[in-house]
Amino acid sequence: MDGFERDLVCALKEVVNDSNWQYVGVKEMFNSPCTKLYSEDGEHVVLVHTEDGRFLAMDSACPHEGGPLELGDIEDVGNGKLALICPWHHFDFCLDTGSSSTGLQNQVYEVREFNGKIYIQTQSRLSLSPKTETAAVPFDSLTPRLPVPVCSEDTLCFWAAKILCTPEPKEKVALTHQVQERWNSGQISEIGHAEAPEQPSREESLTVREPGRIKRGKGGTLASRIALLHSLANIEQWAIDLSWDIIVRFATVRLQNGEQLPQEFFNDFVKVAGDEAKHYQLLEKRITELGSFFGSLPVHNGLWQSATDTSHDLMARLAIVHMVHEARGLDVHPQTLARFAAQSDESSVKILEVIYRDEITHVAAGLRWFTYICAKEERDHLSTFHDLVKQHFKGYLKPPFNSEGRKTAGMNEEWYLPLVRPS
Ligand code: FES
Ligand SMILES: [Fe+2]
Ligand SMILES: [Fe+2]
Fold it and tell me: Where is the signal peptide (predicted)?
């Protein structure tokens, strides 16, 4: 190869490198409809291989609440367009544009096939297997002091653990309301301590499926409304457990200055637990009014993942569960409401409005305790939050944001805009 040819090859290599086309594998490796590709920046991608032989790609985490789109179904939505349907709440995402009829938008990527090789246009390196990294527990994280012996009865933690271990949702709700009442009236006054179960109990009759295998009712029908209410009731059941889990798991933490969490922390999360129980009850009643029942459809338990991921660190728990996921719930509220309003389902609309008002206070509670601990430990609350989200959430936060709802909860843009993918 003479000097000119070498220069030419080098120049071409530079062009290819600068263009951000990532080679992901030969075509034959992607025979299944959906393949998840892991990105180094946590924004994983789903590569879709359609029946007519096309390749398309979009972010694999659903912009709604992070459902696994790689486990979704591909549906023909007319006009030659295909959509990927999220297995969690069945939002549709057009494979060509990433837009959804719900108003949300997913990031799509250009895909090229050349000489039997597949290339995706993105700045991040993609691979077929996740990078195995053992998440380092920060030295100063607020780690619960476990194991601790099971405490005496009639303390808040005894009941929190008991409710977590109660599989029947109606009983879980009733116990939650009883404990809330007894705590508020001072009949239970000791916080105590108890060991939190790794995962809350669920009824054996509840069919728990891999997310991708949950089928939705056809759009716009009564069945699809029931399916959506059913998935919301499932979320509320987990939300009850998340509230009791933060109480029992972190009851014994000490802040860096040696102080314990104040009584108000427990007051707030007992109130959150009570709200979540009320939400479950309202949704369960509505599902019954519509002729079905909770448990009639399979559910997924992907929601506990963030609890497990943050079980070692109270600050991470507050950040991810209450300030990322619950805040995301505020963002998607308008779209969910519109679905029921479009079918004149006023009763469901009223329930969703009650839930929305309460959820604003839950985000506010997360924010209050996060900033309280930062102040006590002389940590900058914004950079601490951003670091924790980058460490535990994996991926970027996605617009659209309900900035009004978030602001009412006390969360200004400075909290979440720095966590959006840079354009
Ligand atoms: S998480 Fe995908 S539709 Fe809710
Ligand atoms: Fe709720
Ligand atoms: Fe909540």
Answer: none
Domain boundaries, the chain: 3-127, 156-419
Question: From its phi and psi, is residue 291 left (phi > 0), alpha (psi between -120 and 50) or beta?
Answer: left
Q: Using one digit for the tens of pLDDT, what is the confidence trace for 26-38?
A: 888 888 889 999 8
Distance 367 CA to ligand 3 centre (A): 13
Structure tokens at 3: 């000097």
Per-residue pLDDT tens digits for 348-393: 999 999 999 999 999 999 999 999 999 999 999 999 999 999 999 8
d(CA 70, CA 31): 14
What is residue 295's DSSP assignment? T
Contact indicator for 196, 248 with CB cutoff of 8 Å:
yes
C-alpha to C-alpha distance for 159 and 166, rounded to whole angstroms: 10
Per DSSP, the three-state class of 72 is coil
The span from the CA of 382 to the CA of 366, in Å, is: 14
pLDDT of residue 148: 43
- Give the C-alpha separation, 368 to 272, whole Å: 13
Q: How many CB atoms lie within 10 A of CB 10?
A: 10
Contact criterion met (CB below 8 Å) for 286 and 232: no
Residue whose pair of structure tokens reads 């108000």 in the numeric block: 264
Write phi, then psi, for 262 (nearest 5 degrees): -75, 165
Ligand 3 centroid–CA 355 distance in Å is: 8
Distance, in Å, from the CA atom of 41 to the CA atom of 348, rounded to the nearest integer, reads: 39
What's the topology of domain 3-127?
A: Rieske Iron-sulfur Protein (2.102.10)
Mean residue pLDDT of the chain comes to 87
Instruction: Kindly state the helix (H) or strand (E) to which residue 35 belongs, with its residue range.
Output: strand 34-39
- Ligand 3 centroid to 239 CA: how many Å? 6
Integer Cα distance of 340 and 416 in angstroms: 28
Residue type (1 letter), 310: T
Residues ≥6 apart with Cβ < 8 Å to 38: 44, 126, 127, 128, 129, 130, 131
